[in-house]
Structure formats: C-alpha cells, structure tokens
Design brief:
Layout (H helix, E strand, L loop, with lengths): L3 E6 L4 H13 L3 E7 L19 E5 L5 H11 L3 E4 L6 H6 L2 H20 L4 E7 L25 H20 L3 E6 L2 E2 L8 H10 L4 E4 L5 E3 L1 E2 H14 L5 E4 L4 E3 H11 L7 E4 L14 H6 L7 H14 L1 H8 L6 H6 L1
Parallel strand pairs: 1-2, 1-4, 2-3, 4-5, 5-6, 6-11, 7-10, 8-13
Antiparallel strand pairs: 9-12
Helix pairs in contact: 1-7, 2-4, 4-5, 6-8, 10-11
The structure holds nicotinamide-adenine-dinucleotide and thymidine-5'-diphospho-beta-D-xylose.
The site of thymidine-5'-diphospho-beta-D-xylose has 16 residues, from helix 6 and strand 8.
C-alpha cells in the first residue's frame, strides 16, 4: 500500500517542530516532510533524535517561491498539508509588518494553489485566536468559531487574511480545508522571545523580566502537546470547510504567569520589571473549544501540570535555549550541508 505523505510547513519552528516529532513517532507508516526556509525562528537541532528516522524528511524551501513549491508538489505527490510556516511574533509585526504580509498571506496563497493543482486530500491551516481581536475582562465571554474577525495587530491581520484565502479556496475550488484557531501555546522548544520561555530563561539567569503595561492582560494557555493532538484529530476527522477553535480553559494574567515561574524556580519577585506597554495590546483572549471537543478532543494538561513540565524541560535542556540566545543554532544546517 502507498505510504501517506504529509507535508508540514514550518516544521523547524516551535509548534510545527513539536508536531513533526509527534507525527514521526505516532505514524511510522506515514512519510513526514518538514518544509522550512529556516528564518531566525527555524532551528533543526531540535530534530537530532528523529533526523535519521526513515519516515522523516527535511526540505529547505521558501513557501513564497511559487516555482519551487509547484515543482515540489509535482514531484512528491503529497496527500496532506499541515501549514504552520509563518512570521509569528506580534512585537516584530509592529516594527516590521511587510514580511508578515509576504510570508503569511502570499506564502499561504502559493501553497493553496499547489494544493489545488495537485489535488491534495486535506489542507489544515494553523491559525490563531488573535484573528478575533480581543475580549473584555468579563469571564463569561469566549471566542467561538462564529466570532467576527477583528484583528488588531499587523500579525493578526496577516493571519486573518490568510484564513480568508483558505476559506475562499474551499468555496471557489472545493479544496478540502480546515482552519484551526488556537490560543497561546507553550511547552518544549518555545523560542525564547515569547513570554513564557523568555521569563524562564531570564529568571534562571537572575535577569529582570519585562512585563508590558500593568501585567493584567489575559492569555489562554495551551500546552503544545495538546495542540498537536488537536491538529492530528482535525487532519483525520475534520469536516471539510470547517473552522475549529483550540484552547483548554487556562486563562491567566501575564503577571500570574510570571509570578508562577518565579515561585517555581525559587527566585524573587523583585526580578519583575514593568515596562512600556505593547502598541495595540489585546486585553484578553479566551477560547470556547466545545466544537473540537465534540469531534473527540480532550486536552491532558492543566496550566499547573503544563507549566511545571515546561519549566522542568527548560532546566534539563539549558544547552538548547542557550544556543538560541547566543545564535549558534543557526550554523547547524550549514555544517550538515558541508
Ligand atoms: P515559529 O515562529 O516558532 O515558527 C515558524 C516557522 O516557520 C519557522 O521554522 C520559520 O523558519 C518558518 N518559516 C517562516 N517563513 C517561512 C517561509 N517563507 N517558508 C518556509 N518556512 C518559513 O512559529 P510557531 O509559534 O511555531 O507558530 C506556528 C504557527 O502557529 C504559525 O502559523 C502561528 O501563526 C500559529 N500560532 C502560534 C501560536 C503560538 O502561541 N506560538 C498560537 C496560535 C497560532
Ligand atoms: O517580554 C514580554 N513581556 C510581556 O509582558 C513579552 C514577550 C510579552 N509580554 C506579554 C504580551 C502578551 O500579553 O505577554 C503576553 C504574551 O506575549 P507573547 O508571548 O508575545 O504572545 P502573544 O502576543 O499573546 O502571541 C502568541 O500567541 C498567539 C504567539 O506569539 C502568536 O503567534 C499566536 O498567534
């Protein structure tokens, strides 16, 4: 029987990287192709344990290059696409929006065209709850799949634009698609520019932790493992054309998150440094995941178990995040090529 071929874009990044490892281990009878251009956020050292597995393959390519993507789809005949590749950091989108439009909008359209041309069986587009904008602090309100799109940052506007293209390819060309919109992920291999890994790395080194504004903004935290099981489910059972929200009811203020990490590491809250607020800083995100739960998804981590596991992972894998902070991870691919 022909092996199923799964193309994962952005598989050298945080969530895509966790998903690639999850799929390589869970489905030895699938071929998993990790396509990544290796921006600053792409790191292949995380895949040292799977890089020799017969069902893992790396493709060094840019999703915005139409010619490359078309010929890859022609030669490899992928069955499924799971699309993570993106510029993902909100702060960077405020200082340099252009690359967000190029990668997140144009890159998605290039992939959709190839998926249409070569008749893939499913295109899962990994999006974000940030496309819905922000909620106020009323704890009874949640983002559902029907919440109107009202993105506030250049990042979330570019993701919302890509979501609309995915929807349009389903409506116009009947491309079999799903869109997933998840809340803030955390867990192993999270790039240390984002709140949780930044805080852990700085607290371990007794450095100040920058908290934007008053620290009262709320995020709904999702362990990356639970996100991987959600995407696996949507890939195999998602109803074509449907959107699924992913989140585990783990709302915390940023200040709570930072204090939890400081307390767990046995350090002083004097490390907290309130700094100027992020421009257009969304107040609160909170997901209603009931549609995905009805499809069969159950997260296994609470915030308490997940943050404890994550802090433990960062303590055990200090060499991983140190080589990210000092930049040496960026030579790993070049050294392999020689
Ligand atoms: P990340 O920044 O860690 O990784 C992105 C990956 O995409 C990197 O490996 C990078 O090299 C690759 N990439 C960027 N431009 C590319 C291009 N032109 N061609 C090929 N590869 C390219 O991102 P992440 O945090 O893992 O997020 C993955 C996806 O999930 C993104 O689409 C993001 O919008 C979405 N998302 C993330 C979160 C979160 O909390 N991190 C939450 C909701 C949604
Ligand atoms: O140093 C910091 N201090 C701080 O207070 C940083 C980096 C962040 N923050 C705040 C801003 C946010 O309220 O912490 C919260 C989390 O910030 P980020 O880690 O930058 O995540 P966020 O902006 O919420 O976006 C993340 O979740 C949704 C991902 O980066 C996005 O890709 C995803 O779509």
């Amino acid at each position: 029987m022909k092996k199923q071929k799964v193309l994962v874009t952005g598989g050298a990044g945080f969530i895509g990287g966790n998903f690639v490892q999850y799929m390589v281990e869970k489905y030895p009878d699938y071929d998993i192709y990790n396509l990544d251009v290796l921006t600053y956020a792409g790191d292949l050292t995380k895949h040292q344990d799977i890089e020799d597995q017969p069902n893992y393959h790396f493709i060094h390519a840019d999703i915005t290059n139409n010619g490359t993507i078309q010929s890859l789809f022609e030669s490899e005949k992928f069955d499924y696409v799971v699309h993570f590749a993106a510029e993902s950091h909100v702060d960077r989108s405020i200082t340099n929006p252009e690359i967000f439009v190029v990668t997140n909008v144009l890159g998605t359209q290039v992939l959709l065209d190839a998926a249409k041309e070569y008749k893939i069986q499913k295109f899962v587009h990994v999006s974000t709850d940030e496309v819905y904008g922000e909620l106020d602090f009323d704890p009874t309100t949640f983002f559902t799949e029907e919440t109107p799109l009202q993105p506030n940052s250049p990042y979330s506007a570019s993701k919302a634009s890509s979501d609309l293209l995915v929807r349009a390819y389903h409506e116009t060309f009947h491309l079999p698609v799903n869109i997933t919109r998840c809340s803030n992920n955390y867990g192993p291999y999270h790039f240390p520019e984002k709140l949780i890994p930044l805080t852990i790395s700085r607290v371990v080194n007794d450095q100040a932790v920058p908290v934007y504004g008053d620290g009262k903004n709320i995020r709904d935290w999702l362990h990356v493992h639970d996100h991987c099981t959600a995407i696996d489910l949507v890939l195999h059972k998602g109803v074509n054309g449907e959107v699924y929200n992913v989140g585990g009811h783990n709302e915390r203020t940023n200040l709570d998150v930072v204090k939890t990490i400081i307390r767990t590491l046995g350090k002083s809250e004097e490390l907290i440094k309130f700094v100027e607020d992020r421009l257009g800083h969304d107040k609160r995100y909170a997901i209603d995941p009931s549609k995905l739960e009805k499809l069969g998804w159950t997260p296994i981590f609470t915030f308490e178990t997940g943050i404890f596991q994550t802090i433990g992972w960062y303590l055990e894998n200090k060499e991983w995040w140190e080589q990210i902070i000092d930049g040496s991870y960026q030579t790993y691919f070049d050294l392999q090529e020689k």
